[in-house]
From TrEMBL:
The keyword S-adenosyl-L-methionine does not apply. The active site is at H70. One of its GO terms (molecular function) is RNA endonuclease activity. InterPro entries: RelE/ParE_toxin, RelE/ParE_toxin_dom_sf, Toxin_YafQ-like. This is Addiction module toxin RelE. Pfam families: YafQ_toxin (PF15738). Transmembrane segments: none annotated. Keywords: Plasmid, Toxin-antitoxin system. PANTHER family: MRNA INTERFERASE TOXIN YAFQ. It comes from Faucicola osloensis. SUPFAM superfamilies: RelE-like (SSF143011). Signal peptide: none annotated. GO terms for biological process: mRNA catabolic process; translational termination.
Length: 75
């Protein structure tokens, strides 16, 4: 199966990363929210309508866990 290439040189990606690094709340358009179940302790936000970033914030670092479509992540 061929891997899908995702181009991330976008204003949205830059804005999300900047907010996370600066510890600023993400704008509402990214639909940022805490996850539950197996992903408890993680958050996700929608960089594009069907491109989801799963991440975890720590005191001094950001763990970028997954960057996939919603269906790839959650079935």
């Amino acid at each position: 199966m061929a891997k899908q290439v995702i181009h991330l040189a976008t204003a949205e990606w830059a804005e999300v990363l900047n907010c996370l690094v600066q510890k600023i709340q993400l704008p509402e358009k990214y639909r940022d929210h805490a996850l539950t179940g197996n992903f408890r302790g993680y958050r996700d936000c929608h960089i594009k309508p069907d491109l989801v970033l799963v991440y975890k914030l720590h005191d001094d670092e950001i763990e970028l866990h997954h960057l996939k479509t919603h269906s790839e992540l959650f079935g």
